[in-house]
Amino acid sequence: MASIVQSVSTVLERERIQFHWILDARKDLLFYIGSALAGWLYLGIIVYAIHTLQNPLTDPLGTLRLGGIHIPLTLELLVVVSWAFILDAPHVWATLGRTLFDPDEWRMRRREILFSFIWFAVGPIAIFTPYLLGAYLPYVGLHLPVEMLPLGAVLFFVFFRLWAYYHVVRQHWGFFTLYKRKAQDYHPERDRIDHWFFNLSMYLPLVMFLTSEYYASTPGFPDLGLRKPVIAGISIGEIVYPIAWAGFFVVILYYLYFQYRLWRSGEVLNGSKLLYMALLVPLHFLAFSHPIIAVFIVPLVTVGHNIQYHCIIYQYAKNKYHPAQDRQYRWVKALFKNFAVYAFWGIVFTFAFYRGPWIEFLKDWLGLELDQVLLNSIGMMAGIKDPAKLGLGEQIFAAFIIGFAMQHYYLDSKIWRVRKDRQVAKHLNV
């Protein structure tokens, strides 16, 4: 494969399109650029289910038979559970291994690491607050309507999903800028156009979804009222949606024209950057284009991010910890000894978290069928469950689990600052 890539790259270089890799051609195409293909695979499964099943959210595509056990292959299992168990939870563990077990991180970012544990309480507090108000407001002569009780859960999960999308987009921006850095692709005009193209192509599909007619028919998403008439019978959505739609395609067409203009003027095009965005932009656009597809937006756009993250954090650990002889790194070095060990601890974390003794303790203590509660919690994380339709205990349990993800988002925003942290740049080889 490497020889094929090299020959293709040689031909393209003659046409002034050059590829500069962060690791090498094979690894970049598999784990950084090609990681988006996992999202395309999920998208293909979902589209197939939409066109073949009466109810794609609940009907199985088939049944897996293992001995006497029959497992219905629903989209929740094929897309959400596979993503959550195999890739997403282990990538959260990767952040914890990279920070909690690295003495350098404790010296540099002790305050941020300790603060990160607050995120486990944010969701439960937000969810429980309306119930607390509902219990105590009658003492001062006020009453909270019953339909307002789920408001804390709805607002919290909307906040989480938006932060999840922002987190993924920020990582994509990080790789986009790394490919610019590798190619020395710097020029005031190009930088400005790259910045606007990237952000508009990533966020306009979200705006289009929120203001579309089909948003209201997307399960698990609260009504934002953007399609309700406000002025002269016209809603905000009716105004914003066509503008966002037109803006998206104008941005794409202008960026393609700009690249053509550079090529005609004799400039060398950054092939790695362009290939990276060629896989991402249509995936994000299509992920928001249909109410059933949008239900699975979190795993669709996150699965590629997970693959990228596993690769970059393992490469970072190998560059930093493997050559080190200092005993201060002995624990974190053991976690990243090789990829098999790294994957093993990620799976251990996943199953200890989802199926460990503490789950059995909670089942006995609370008297809940936590297997279903757990699936509902994962479903709320992924966006396929409506928090307003689940019980208070399920909402709080899901919010606590989401604390791991939000801790990951927060810590990630602190530990990968290539421009500000020379050690990070060094160990990432950029």
Provide keyphrases for this structure.
mainly alpha, 6 strands
What would you say about this model in short?
This protein is mainly α and 430 residues long.
Account of the protein in words:
The protein has helices at 2-14, 25-32, 36-52, 75-100, 103-115, 119-136, 151-182, 188-210, 236-264, 271-287, 291-295, 297-321, 330-335, 339-355, 357-366, 370-382, 392-415, 422-427; strands at residues 17-18, 63-66, 69-72, 229-231, 234-235, 269-270. The chain is mainly alpha-helical and 430 residues long. It has one domain. It has a two-stranded parallel sheet with strand order 1-6. A two-stranded antiparallel ribbon has the order 2-3. Strands 4-5 form a two-stranded antiparallel ribbon.
Q: What are the secondary-structure elements, in order, as H or E?
A: HEHHEEHHHHHEEHEHHHHHHHHH
Strand order of the largest sheet: 1-6
SS-derived structural category: mainly alpha
Q: Report strand %.
A: under 5%
The general outline is: globular
- Beginning-to-end CA distance, first to last residue: 24 Å
List the SSEs and their pairings.
Layout: H1 2-14, E1 17-18, H2 25-32, H3 36-52, E2 63-66, E3 69-72, H4 75-100, H5 103-115, H6 119-136, H7 151-182, H8 188-210, E4 229-231, E5 234-235, H9 236-264, E6 269-270, H10 271-287, H11 291-295, H12 297-321, H13 330-335, H14 339-355, H15 357-366, H16 370-382, H17 392-415, H18 422-427
Parallel strand pairs: 1-6
Antiparallel strand pairs: 2-3, 4-5
Helix pairs in contact: 3-10, 3-12, 4-12, 4-14, 4-16, 4-17, 6-7, 6-17, 7-10, 7-12, 7-17, 8-9, 8-10, 14-15, 16-17
